[in-house]
Each structure stands twice: as C-alpha cells, then as structure tokens.
Amino acid sequence: MNGDVGGLEGLVQRVLRRAVGAVHPAELLADAEARVREQVREGVAPNRIRIVLATDDFLRLAPDLPAFERELRTLLAERARREGWRFLAPLDVEVVADPDVAVGVPRVSADVRLGATTPPLGEGFPTRALRRPGRPWWVRVEGGERMPIAFLPFRIGRAKENDLVLPGLLVSRRHAEILDDGRGGAILRDLGSRNGILVAGERVDHVPLRPGLAVQIGEFTLHFGTDE
What pTM does this model have? Predict the structure, then answer.
C-alpha cells in the first residue's frame, strides 16, 4: 500500500480519487463476501470468486487489482476462521472486464472448484498499467466469436490469467501480448514463447495489427479487425 493509509481504506481512497460514480471497491468486497456466504454448504465455502466489471470500471480499478484481490482473500480467510468454514482448494479470485456489463453494476459469482490454484501475485503476470487502444480492435479465434480488445496490454496464452486464453499444448502460458505502438496503432509481440507467432507461415518476433491480419499461435489461428 502507498502512503500512510493502508488496507481497504487506502484502496478506496485511491480509486475514488480517479473517478466518482464508478464501482466502489468496498461494495465489491461486501458483494463478494455475501455471495460466498450464500453458497456455503455443510461448512464448505466457495473457493472461486469471479467478478465481472464494465470495461470503464475495470480500467479504473486495474492499478489496484493486486491490492483488491489481496484484501478479498484476507477478508474471506478471516471470515472462514470465525465461521468455521473450510475451503476445498486455495482461494481463486478473478476480476475481468466485459463490455456488455453496465458501469457500476458488477456481476459477482462464487462456486467450489477442486484443484483451483492462484499463483502468488506478480508471479509471471506483473501488474499492468492499462490504457485504451487507439482504435476499436477485435480478435477472433478461427471458428469462434469476436472478442473486443478493450485495453492494452492485452495478454494471450494458455494460463487463465490471460485476457485471451488458448488452451493448446503448443501454446505457452504467457505466449504473446498486444501493445500500444505509441502512434495510435498496436503491435502483437511474442513473449519468448516456445513455438512463437507465425504470419503466413513465417515466425516473427512482432507484427503490427492491421485489419485482416491472420496469425498462428500454437494450434489456433487468430484473425484481427477493427470496427472503424
């Protein structure tokens, strides 16, 4: 935590300094705790909590997501000790953005997942300073639906912490990311993956995004476009 104010109070103050009327982190924590409490069965509490935010809310909260997730895990662990709950696997907290969710109206769910694991904060997935892309890009895995690229950097890989998860044997945990190129465009960059990024059959370290671009990542073909 930064400054003299720590814990939840400091988190709330930092977020509210950036936006008024946005989703409130204290309310998110309370909603998540309530949802977990509702789902406790025979002393077993949900260990997987998923919070879906509007893109604007996610971008406001993004710099403090590690602190928010840490506060939520601490809150639930303390509540479990008081109430005598038990978790069948480590607590797994996931906060994601969805452009179809209304600003200030988060969706919170909680369930039991056996074998769920949460890597230590910062292990392989450093906190990002998110920004909006200069153009309304989207990506589509061949055979699937379009997914908006609502913020950059945008991560692609096999691990669930990525923004686009590709569950293939030839895909690395952190395979690639899309970055702002500083000129209003974006670049797809390889993150040192084992099998790389292929464009027209050739392996490349990076490639500028352009409408109609097709890229091979492991077993998957990704198509990029823009709504402009």
Answer: 0.48
